[in-house]
Amino acid sequence: MKLITAVVKPHRLDEIKEALQAFGVHGLTVTEASGYGRQRGHTEVYRGAEYTVDLVPKIRIEVLAEDDDAEQLIDVIVKAARTGKIGDGKVWSLPVETAVRVRTGERGPDAL
Amino acid sequence: MASAAITLAAEAPKLSSANTGFMLICSALVLLMTPGLAFFYGGMVRVKSTLNMLMMSFISIGIVTILWVLYGFSLAFGSSNGFIGYDSHWLGMSDVGLTDLWPGYTIPIFVFMVFQMMFAVITPALISGAIADRVKFSAWSLFVALWLTVVYVPVAHWVWGADGWAFKLGVIDFAGGTAVHINAGAGALGVILVIGRRVGFKRDPMRPHSLPLVMLGAGLLWFGWFGFNAGSWLGNDDGVGALMFVNTQVATAAAMLAWLAYEKIRHGAFTTLGAASGAVAGLVAITPSGGAVSPLGAIAVGAIAGVGCAAAVGLKYKFNIDDSLDVVGVHMVGGILGSLLIGFFATGKGQSTATGVFYGDHSFTQLWKQFAGVGAVLGYSLVASAVLAFLIDKTIGMRVTEDEEVSGIDQAEHAETAYDFSGAGGGLSGGTLTAATETKKVDA
């Protein structure tokens, strides 16, 4: 199994969710995140005082996938997340040792 | 306030139900300004000191109300040698007849007393914005009581008391440009020179945590300010109160537009905080001047105050003085501009026949009088407030510890936090209800 993590622009979430559902993914976890890459931050002004805000709001999506599906699933996410502008984010995957469905106790790929 | 007594020839004024009702409503409007101020300031601080900021205003309502009834009104508005008044009948307000009229006017003494009480409530509260995040609540409460007694009461007497020296000299201050705004702004400067800067000033970003709260507060201030300004004529029999009402609206609109234009040119954006700040700057500047100028004059006063205050708020970084929410930059500077501009824009057709440089015989007489009033209030409040802060600092201490300041004064001083950010409705804080039934003192 693989854990696929995507850190992307918040407004792409719906597109990605729909693409994943169409692909057959039944569940995912989303958290609000902040960070920066090459995009860097922006400037805000309060009564003339300028603040540089380095960390930009992002969404972190985590999906578990079977090994055979992982690369294809990554492609689906990347395609749905891409706007072509700087700051689109990153997607990566890691090997997962085990997964358990809490309600039934099923383990491994059956738990996905 | 009030030079023309409403009298018919040789006839003593009678109680007017209309004026009395109007003034009671105005008193409630002025009270509303203090919660409005609390939100205006409260939205501008960081999350961790929101409640402390709100509470510094609310405690002023409690303390000043009681002291005003006990002795404040007597000392501010009793007869005198010109510097501080006294009237034994007004101590505690228990020896005053229900229909005893305020001398020369058509409203009862009780009504005038409670209207003035609301002014005394908001003036110390204005100072709190300069000292955000860092002052012990006990020290602030003591400061409010002492400042009311030593600074506000005498200054109000100079400016508004029938025997006050500034009033007799002919200094025009319709609703409190000197007695309220310069007084509070200069007082704030005195206090922050004593207690110093916040931890991380000029290093950490100290962004407003909620601009919607700031806008809400500015809106409440604007609304309540009609009572503050139009009510200060104490009646409606000659139309001056209505002129003040109109000028209040006009100058505030002009100042908001001027501030926004200034910052669009200087900083590239029309900011929400700029709109709210510009409105307050305009309200401050028209407070002393609105009874003396025409609506066109009010546009000028508002526009000058909007640009002047927008330029002034940046100076704290240059001088390295942590006037946290710009009380000096908005209230002192706005109050000075409004008070001095009377010397240029007074038409002689409003509250009095005194004219400014641009009207009548183009004399500078009124301008010099305005300078005298501004200088005296500014100097006295600055020094007396600094001395009070120094004395409190040397006895019970003004500031919370650095640890408490950094981790948040709300938790340290009030044993509360303003917002519950956990998605699970509080379930994620990891705590349990420890002592709902027994009395237990928290470590705060």
Written account of the structure:
The complex is a heterodimer of chains A (112) and B (444). With 112 residues, chain A is of the alpha+beta class. In chain A, 23% of the residues lie in helices and 37% in strands. Chain A has helices at residues 13-23, 67-81, and strands at residues 2-8, 29-35, 42-46, 49-53, 56-65, 89-95. In chain A, a hairpin with a 2-residue loop joins strand 3 and strand 4. In chain A, helix 1 packs antiparallel against helix 2 (67-81). The longest helix of chain A is centred in the middle third of the chain and has 15 residues, at 67-81. The mean pLDDT of chain A is 91. By secondary structure, chain B is mostly helical. Chain B has a single domain, classed as Ammonium transporter fold, CATH 1.10.3430.10. In chain B, 61% of the residues lie in helices and 1% in strands. Chain B is built from 15 helices and 2 strands. In chain B, strands 1-2 form a two-stranded antiparallel ribbon. In chain B, helix 8 packs antiparallel against helix 9 (272-289). The longest helix of chain B has 31 residues, at 365-395. The A-B interface holds A 44-51, 53 and B 205, 207-208, 263, 266-269, 271, 273-274, 277, 310, 313-314, 317, 326.
Task: Walk me through the topology.
The complex is a heterodimer of chains A (112) and B (444).
Chain A: E1 2-8, H1 13-23, E2 29-35, E3 42-46, E4 49-53, E5 56-65, H2 67-81, E6 89-95
Antiparallel strand pairs in A: 1-5, 1-6, 2-5, 3-4
Chain B: H1 17-42, H2 50-77, E1 79-80, E2 85-86, H3 109-127, H4 137-160, H5 165-169, H6 177-195, H7 211-230, H8 240-267, H9 272-289, H10 295-312, H11 315-319, H12 327-345, H13 365-395, H14 402-407, H15 409-414
Antiparallel strand pairs in B: 1-2
Pfam families (chain A): P-II (PF00543)
InterPro entries (chain A): N-reg_PII (IPR002187), N-reg_PII-like_a/b (IPR011322), N-reg_PII/ATP_PRibTrfase_C (IPR015867), N-reg_PII_urydylation_site (IPR002332)
Protein name (chain A): Nitrogen regulatory protein P-II
